[in-house]
């Protein structure tokens, strides 16, 4: 970025745009120890399948809680 700026290929607006972008290491992540999930997720799943499984489970539980709240009214 410094070389591009000194070469005149990048201006202040470009630098501001780059600096305001969300970086990969700035994203919030959730870490769950594998032993807490042992027996709940099939062992044959790869990493992407595990993530998809967890997201679907959370979505399902969220819908369940919403229905519980609606029925309590």
Task: Considering the chains and any ligands shown, give keywords for the structure.
73 residues
Q: Can you describe this structure?
A:
The protein has 73 residues and is mostly helical. It has one domain (2-72). Helices cover 60% and strands 0% of the residues. It has four helices and no strands. It has helices at residues 2-6, 12-20, 34-37, 47-72.
Brief summary:
With 73 residues, this protein is an all-alpha fold. It has one domain. The protein is built from 4 helices and no strands.
Helical coverage, percent range = 55-70%
Report the structural category.
mainly alpha
Strand content of the residues, in percent? under 5%
Number of domains: 1
Main pleated sheet = none
| Overall outline | elongated
Regions with pLDDT < 50 over 5+ consecutive residues? none
What's the overall average pLDDT, rounded?
88
Whole-Å distance between the termini?
A: 57 Å
Number of strands: 0
List SSEs in N-to-C order.
Answer: HHHH
Q: How many distinct helices?
A: 4
Radius of gyration: 22 Å
Write the layout of secondary structure elements.
Blueprint lengths: L1 H5 L5 H9 L13 H4 L9 H26 L1
């Amino acid at each position: 970025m410094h070389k591009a700026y000194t070469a005149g290929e990048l201006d202040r607006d470009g630098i501001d745009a780059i600096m305001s972008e969300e970086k990969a290491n700035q994203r919030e992540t959730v870490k769950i120890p594998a032993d807490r999930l042992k027996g709940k997720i099939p062992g044959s799943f790869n990493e992407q399948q595990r993530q998809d499984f967890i997201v679907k489970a959370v979505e399902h539980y969220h819908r369940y809680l919403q229905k519980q709240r609606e029925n309590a009214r």
